[in-house]
User: Fold this.
Amino acid sequence: MNDMGISQFKSHAAEVLIRLAKTQENIIITRRGKPLARIIPYHDADKTPKPGKLANTLIFEKDIVSPLGKEMWDACK
Assistant:
C-alpha cells in the first residue's frame, strides 16, 4: 500500500492504521492525486538503538604502527 485517497482513508482509518502497525509500511495520503501527508508506523524509543551504545565495545590502540611492524606499515601506505 503506497498511497490512498483522503476520502478512502477517512472512511477506513482504523483498519488502515492497524494494518500499517502490523506490516510496518508507510502510506501517503493524497488529495486529487497530490500528496498531503505520510503516515509512518510508531517505533518505540526503548527498542531502537541509542547513539553511543557501542562506544565502550571498541579498543583504541595508541600506537597503530607497532601491530604491523614498521616494514608492513610502510608497505601499506
